[in-house]
Amino acid sequence: MSDTHFDLVVLGGGMAGLPIANKAAYKGLRTALVERDTLGGTCLNRGCIPTKTMIESARAAHTARTAARFGVRVEGDVSVDLASVVRRKDEVVRSIRENAYRQVERNERLTLFEAEGRFLEPGVIGVGNATIRAERVVINTGARPTRPDVEGLADVPYLTSRGLLDVTDLPEHLVVVGGGYVGCEFAQMFRRFGSRVTLVQRGPHLLPGEDPAAADVIADVFREEGIDLFLDTEARRVERRGSGFRLHVAADGEVRAIDGTALLIAAGRTPNTDALDLSAAGVEVDERGFVVVDEAYRTTAHDVWAIGDVIGGPMYTHSARDDAERLYRHIVNGEVATSAGRNVPRAVFTDPEVASVGMTEGEARAEGREIKVGEHPFTRVARAKAMGETAGFVKLVADAGSDELIGATIVGPHAGELIHELVLALDLGATYDRIGRSLHVHPTLAEGVNSAAGGVHRPAGDE
């Protein structure tokens, strides 16, 4: 076997491509990992890790400004040194990324190609100026921010999540187009850093896909913190205006203008498939460019699979890692390991956080299912009161006939941590009443989960 012939070629070194390439190589497969940018993909370099690192800085600033509610006096104005925040973020990312490169370097059967890969024909891939041959191929090239169809956008400097992470001069007025996960997290982050922030969302609620009641909690908090919200509003046209821009938006048949100094476009994700020449390998994509796969991650080409964001939702690092684990077990061990039936939790790292798993109440009712719903507000959870963080609730959705849990939503402090009890409950087929009988430590936020199921921690007098 030549140096250009591999048992497995992985296109893309993101958080799914890295583990499957490393593990396959350690199991004896001669493996090539092709990455045109930097190992770690979106999550490590311009997504999960850097954003959450900066969110912690923003939270620290907010806590300092609101310390008086805890009886703590902070003298003088609280200000944010954004350049220092960015340096801290870069250091956190650097330390994790360096470890990723060390893992690859130590793996004797793994060869890293730092170049762009593209199919030349089935089983043959061009990597920069070289050509390699593959017995099997895994596509993990991820996705990038979408540029929406807004007139004039190509002529106005704008930022995506990638660029905004490196801004060291605080924008005077940040305008965010898009009210999904990315838009909401950045809007609150930069408001807490000290920018004036306006958020424009095309739909009637923030965080589409989540329980509307949870989205309403976030909208109320945003307004309390001074974020200007334009819901059910479409961004139509943008133009330069002095050192900034003017965004023309439409709502209820009326058009108005919003002037800003920095523009963040957070309007979804586009798959990185346009440079792969997938047709040369017989790999089909859908109308949006995402690779078409079945539940076993098989594409329309023989011995070619795809995992992660490049196949569409759910676009989360944890689901991509699970894709990699399941596909690894198939390729290396010959197991039948598909995505069928798995429960993928999700979380938005606003403050309060929003986390959910399974079906929302609205989704269950839209399917015509008979359900029972248990809900408990954090205003009635002792630990939340002690923390001064009572916005939000725990909501459980169960099948009315079997009593089996089918979904859960938490909006409140540390929701991203609390949801895991309910992920396990869903995986194990636990019933609503079983959650209610489960004893939780007092005083903890998790008591709210038990209380939502009408359990032993539900305060006397609650309906």
Compact description:
The chain is of the alpha/beta class.
In CATH terms, what is the architecture of the largest domain? 3-Layer(bba) Sandwich
**Biggest beta sheet summary:** 7 strands, mixed
Alpha-carbon Rg, integer = 24 Å
What is the number of helical segments per DSSP (H or I, 4+ residues)? Answer: 13
Describe the 3D structure.
This protein is of the alpha/beta class and 463 residues long. The protein has three domains: 5-145 and 270-333, FAD/NAD(P)-binding domain (3-Layer(bba) Sandwich); 153-266, FAD/NAD(P)-binding domain; 352-452, FAD/NAD-linked reductase, C-terminal dimerisation domain (Enolase-like, domain 1, 2-Layer Sandwich), CATH 3.30.390.30. It contains 13 helices and 21 strands. The strands form five sheets. Strands 1, 2, 3, 4, 5, 6 and 16 form a seven-stranded mixed β-sheet that branches. It has a five-stranded antiparallel β-sheet with strand order 17-18-21-20-19, sandwiched between helices. The chain has a four-stranded parallel β-sheet with strand order 10-9-8-14, covered by helices on one side. A hairpin with a 2-residue loop joins β12 and β13. α3 crosses α6 (181-193). It is globular. The chain starts with a strand and ends in an 11-residue tail after the last helix. The mean pLDDT is 96.
